[in-house]
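In response to reviewer comment 3 from the previous cycle, which asked for concrete evidence that the modeling workflow produces usable outputs, we include below a single protein chain processed end to end. The sequence was submitted unchanged, and the resulting structure tokens are shown without manual editing.
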Amino acid sequence: MYESRRVVTVRTERKFRRYADWVEPKCELYATLSRATAEDRRLLEIAREARPEQPEPELLLAAVHSLLLDGKEHRLRAFYPSCAGTPPEDSPVSSFRDFCLTYETELRRIIRTRRCQTNDVGRSAVLRPAFEHVANTTGAETVAQLEIGTSAGLNLNWDRYQYDFAGVGSFGDTDSPVTIQTTVRGETRPPLSQSVPTVKHRCGVDLNVLDVTDEADARWLHALVHPNQHRRHERLAGAIEIGREHRHQLIEGDVIEELPRMLSTAPDDIPLIVFSTHVLYQLPEETIAELRAIISCHSSTQPVHWLSIDPEEALSDPTYRWVQFDDGVVKETQLATFESYGTWLNWSGARGVQN
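The workflow returned the following structure tokens.
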């Protein structure tokens, strides 16, 4: 038993070290806290409350952030810009440890029950040209969309946001409280115009649906955003505002069980687009194979367009792809690479290969 516990501890420690290296260019505070946690057996035990498939570093840091956003008074607040703090000159490590031990019971409950569901609408930067590309290719003016791993459903509203694609132009709703700023890389211009397909049907599925009208769920979405990233917090606040105004059908359940019914109840007279952002990498290969089989089977009734990241690639700069299913014929096209939160996009739209 001791050996097993030790192996688990070492594994969790390594996760915190890897996360520290990844997050350092984005949030120095989180890098510092992650490295300190990797050295602290007590904090590692708290983090291990996470479900097996959930990332312990992100959940521990988000749980702490959530309690601070909820108004917990502690010296640690001063290190968090999202809590209007002005970071002191000294290290945050001792304050972080004291906070975790003071609120250990609440932290364990949050880590045990919550999931890492960063419903970042910056990812709509790749959705807008991808949807427009599908519409242009199929000649459609109206589409239906189903989202896998929808979280709070914020990216179902991709057509209600304003976009500033540096080097290309501005597009979308100029009155929107959400502006997504993206740098376009490479020589190929993404398919962008002021005219996008009308979305007739919107539905999402997730194991744990978040409700933007619930203050605790809305706070959790903010807690998952790094505390120093003001623009992302402002963007999220605008997306939550839109999400509260435009409510969609969000189904809580297993996608393998729910997707067949979602496909069968969607309109069958317009292009049907199944999409996700950062979900497939969390799923085992057999689940992805089942998803593919379900979509392929439905394509005997109507063509289905599947937009997703390539689950076989590293997540740092993922590739977005378009897989077309049409009665047994499958065609895959690599559309773009992009930064996980939409800061840049490199459009390719290369020719696909039938198989």
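Residues 145 and 202 are 5 Å apart (CA to CA). We consider this sufficient to address the reviewer's concern, and the full set will be provided in the supplementary archive.
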